[in-house]
Amino acid sequence: MTEMSNHNEDGNTAPDSKDQMVTGSAWMTAGSIFSRILGAVYIIPWGIWFGSYFFQGNALYGKGYNIYSFFLIAAIAGIPSAIAKQVAHYNAMNEYGVGFRLYKHGFILAALTGLVCAALLYFGAPMFDGGDARVVPVLHSLAWAVLIIPVMSLSRGFFQGYQQMAPSAISQFVEQLARVAYMLGSAFIIMRVLHGSWVTAVSQSTFAACVGAIAGTLTLAWYYLKNRPTFNSLVANSKNEIVVPAKQLYQEILQQALPFIVLGAGITIFQLIDQYTFFNFMRGTGITSTVMLNNLFAMFSVNANKLIMIIVSLSSALAITVVPLLSEAYTRNDREDISHQLTNAMLLFAFVMIPSALGMAAIAHPLNIIFYGTSHKDLATAVLAFSAFVSIMLGLFSVTSAIMQGVSQNKRAVRYFAVGTIVKLALQWPCIHYMGVFGPLVATTLGFLVANILILNWLNKSFGVDFPAISKKVNGVLAFSLLMCGVAYLLVQLVSHLLATFMVVDSRVGSLIVVVIAVGIAGYLYVYLVLRTRLADTVLGDRMRRLRTMLHIK
Q: What is the rounded CA–CA span in Å between residue 214 and residue 447?
């Protein structure tokens, strides 16, 4: 593991905060991306084993997971991000001992909130089923994960406070690996060996979250024990000039944590609005079949969402990295560094998010078939492509809300999110009534658009965001992304046409071949263009020179 601190003896931050952000983002992005991909790939064998119950099972899985996600965020209570922010704050002052005490008191809080929320989810499950009794056993199985994950997430926040992202990223991947292994194993045994109930199989698939949480927690414990001597040394050499009573530490944690609940649950809150309004609003359009409504819900809220969250995780990883870095700059009252980091964050977001979203939209047809088969393929493809564009707003909110937390504007960020939520609620019925399954996605886009505009406007007024510099580079990213998107789409059409002469293109194998070729060529084109024009250097720094040499690009 790398050096545990980026501070010198005087408590000054190392000057290359941009490089620090990129390095931290790389770790968090890698962990998040691999975890998301693993969390999406499992759906292929899982769906095959569920057979004709696939869409129904996936809809039930989504209903349970949306409710679970909200309870989990409430249980975590924003404590990990608050701990990361406050630990970074005290580390910047060379008060490592205070940060360590924060972690210990946060551990107690996380254990208590996990216990309370797990009990509420388990015993209150019948109140949250939305009229579908099959959701109850799913919520019961998920309650066990709520009991464990808060403590695991808190420990990740502690490492992040030291800008050490590797433990978080690796534990995240191990957690997902164990979860997916249990999901697939239990689904195969119940559906194929025992020929049991698909509801039972879904319940065991959701219980896998608990299995994964145990594996992730053990990974973090190993990292902690490995680095305990380093932690002890930092604490021993602290200034120890600040004495913070335990009561004040709890107050600091809670004051920082509570707004994180709302902001961290932002996307989940919008998904819950969809879950509890979509079915009734769609019945008003004349569609009354429960099976059809579940299929439509699965398309936009579960299937497409699972894939777009892979690319949203890019910006989420960036958001996690931004908070402690901004907190340090804010503690030093270094407005120039804050403005510089805001600009870096926006550029890094655009650099990875825009091409990812446009690329997914371009390959939506074969990508949808790989994961979800040919059922309702045309409508499902359109929903996935549209969702890919929506993901830009979701990702941007992940970054902007994290920035607001980093500069201690939690309450203001919550107010802006509340305005966006009101917009979402106001537009939900007319959007669903006139646009059907696309309605919730449109309402979500507009809701987050309003919240993002409000946040960016305030940040610009308060710290000054270099929009001219950002817009010039973002225009370059957008131009190269659109070119890449067009090439990817043409390759999908061309390769599909060529393959159609000797194999079924709309099969998982045929679609995989199409995706690999389209992503490989179009993806390389984007990389070539940003390296050849030196655009990548302005965003990611001099390390791109080495990559350019490796790829033989002048």
A: 36
Q: Could you give the CA distance from residue 171 to residue 27 in angstroms, rounded to a whole number?
A: 12
Spatial contact of 147 and 209, defined as CB atoms under 8 Å apart: no
Rounded to 5 degrees, what angle do the CA atoms 425, 426, 428 make? 60
Task: Give the closest residue to 100 by CA, choosing from 251, 233, 9.
Answer: 233
d(CA 383, CA 375) in angstroms, rounded, equals 13
**CA dist., res. 401 & res. 57, Å (int):** 33
User: Which pair of tokens denotes residue 22?
Assistant: 């990129």
**CA–CA dist 321, 328 (Å, integer):** 12
pLDDT at 477: 92
Question: Is 323 within 8 Å of 408 (Cβ atoms)?
Answer: no
DSSP-derived letter for residue 14 is: P
Residue 13 sits at φ, ψ, to 5 deg, of: -80, 145
- Cβ burial of 153 (10 Å; 0-12, 13-18, 19+) is buried
Q: What is the pTM of this model?
A: 0.76
> pLDDT of 98-141, one tens digit each?
777 778 877 888 888 889 999 999 999 999 887 788 999 999 99
Give the whole-angstrom CA distance, residue 366 versus residue 163. Answer: 39
Predicted pLDDT of residue 226: 85
Assess contact for 151 and 214: CB atoms under 8 A: no
Judge whether 540 and 22 are in contact, CB under 8 Å.
Answer: yes
Return the DSSP state at 192: I
**pLDDT exceeds 90 at position 361:** yes
CA angle, 337 then 341 then 345, to 5°: 175
Region 317-336: what's the mean pLDDT? 70
Rounded CA separation 99/168 (Å): 18
Q: How confident is the model at residue 354 (pLDDT cuts 50, 70, 90)?
A: very high
Nearest to 524 by CA among 506, 550, 505: 550
Q: At what angle do helices 246-264 and 79-92 cross, to 10 degrees?
A: 130
The tens digit of pLDDT for each residue in 144-187 reads 999 998 889 888 877 777 766 778 778 888 998 999 999 999 99
